[in-house]
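seq:
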Amino acid sequence: MSTLSGRILVTGGAGFIGSALIWALNRRGHTDIVVSDFLGSDEKWRNLVPLRFADYVEADAFRRQLAANPSAFGRFTAVFHLGACSSTTEKNAGYLVDNNYSVSKELAAWALGQGARFIYASSAATYGDGAQGMDDVSEDLGRLRPLNMYGYSKHLFDLHAQRSRWLERIVGVKYFNVFGPNEEHKGDMRSLVDKAYQQILANGKVQLFKSHKPEFKDGEQMRDFLYVKDAVEMTLHFAEQAPKAGGLYNLGSGQANTWLTLTRAIFAALGREPEIEFVDMPGVLRGKYQYFTQANVAKLRATGYERTMTPLADAVRDYVQGYLVPGKKLGE
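struct:
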């Protein structure tokens, strides 16, 4: 039973995690939801079709109207700010700063001003190559060195929230490698599960990047893969069971797995023998590639989050068999 009540705002609500969050809210009986996003010309509007919500407002219009009148959309109990440019290869630094940093500052100040619970998407990309650790306990955020402009734009807001002492009252969630239904529109930013499924349909095999570090064999680079259904449960936890928690929190499975393990699980879900080909990593990625990520989720657990993370093979099977093969969205 959800303890959350009142009106809810979800920015980025047509996107991957945002639409999954609305799906989870709908399953709890919540429909008084305002959705904001940039629908653009891709297919993410399809994520919204099976979902129930009260209103949709384009993100730029929402921003303009709030700036002119902070009461334009009434009062909200909770604001889930998941809207951002999530491309790790985006080169337009000015766009990233405005979209991921400035908008976050404006929304957080507005939400706090009206007493709404504010939960926003930070990112594990703020940790860079992990040389400074990937813990969410240390308050020395200045030690972190993101590897790309996307990570830096997220890092800038974390720093601002800390300087402004907002982090005592708001929550920033650092998603690790999230995968699952409703990500098809993300193009190159889709998870390997979606990409591999399409490759298997096309030619029966999957391509993985070779390793360019001797300590990692090909395909044994490691990531913390998190099923989107778990990711949204963790996110909602901070509005339901831990409404007073503040600060930055890692959201991951807590377990690093290799790309080979993930790929074999995809073949297994399809009842096929693995066929894997290793290809050179593009030069543009080599200096910005994370070879190992693993979320320490002790801080999340300390807030009372008790759910078991879905085992990787089970999550992959649910995604492949329940959504990719039949071509379904969450809620259909």
